[in-house]
Design brief:
The structure is a single chain. By secondary structure, this protein is an alpha/beta fold. It folds into two domains: 63 residues, Arc Repressor Mutant, subunit A; 127 residues, Roll (CBS-domain), CATH 3.10.580. It is built from eight helices and nine strands. It has a four-stranded mixed β-sheet. Helix 2 packs across helix 3 and helix 5 crosses helix 6. The chain is elongated, with a radius of gyration of 26 Å. The two termini are 13 Å apart. It binds adenosine-5'-diphosphate (ADP). Adenosine-5'-diphosphate binds next to strand 5, helix 6 and strand 8. InterPro entries: CBS_dom (IPR000644), CBS_dom_sf (IPR046342), CBS_domain-containing (IPR051462), DeoR_HTH (IPR001034), HTH_11 (IPR013196), UCP026546_HTH-CBS (IPR016842), WH-like_DNA-bd_sf (IPR036388), WH_DNA-bd_sf (IPR036390). It comes from Staphylococcus marylandisciuri. This is Helix-turn-helix transcriptional regulator.
Amino acid sequence: MELSKRQQQIIEIVKSKGPITGENIAEKLNLTRATLRPDLAILTMSGILEARPRVGYYYTNKSQNKIITEELSKYIVKDYASHPIIIKNGVSIYDAICTIFMEDVSTLFIINNKGDFVGVCSRKDLLRASMMGEDIHTTPVDIIMTRMPNLSYVTTQDKVITAAQLMIEKEIDSLPIVQHKQTGTVEIKGRISKTTITKLFVSLFKE
Ligand code: ADP
């Protein structure tokens, strides 16, 4: 966020004289309180200044980066979950390819007959299998999927930023959102993808 010259002047005044009332800031700038109102609103909303009733404005001493980091930490995975596309183990590679096309996703999540999350199969996994000359009609997806203990996932209460970091670190496009079962296994509750996070990023910009 780029601050105007007047907003920077306000910050300097509050830094040296705070806590200080809006009235007194206005006096120092030879302006009216009403003229300053939008600037003070921007500075408090962005977290640079804080206002205490009957005390006045004071400088929070938070860098803009810290403010952004704190803001981003509030976004929780469960609020940005999308629908996961799940197939059962034993399904053929051919059927997995059909599902990828029909559902228009990049990754399929695979479960066993108990509903436990057991694998992930991406577009490239399917392409590789087809190119390697596997009999895609008879070979089950289990043969080519990435499996436990190599699966990455997040839980509903994780931060969106944690999911983003994990996707970058593992070089993957999406993550399943899981819930731990009493049996020690996990079940899939949703999905979070790079697209979802990009949309969130764009929506913040619009706000
Ligand atoms: P693509 O292969 O279409 O580029 P990804 O980049 O998402 O898709 O996947 C790259 C590799 O990582 C694939 O081999 C896939 O099986 C694996 N993979 C994808 N998601 C996960 C995950 N959540 N946990 C572990 N491995 C994954």
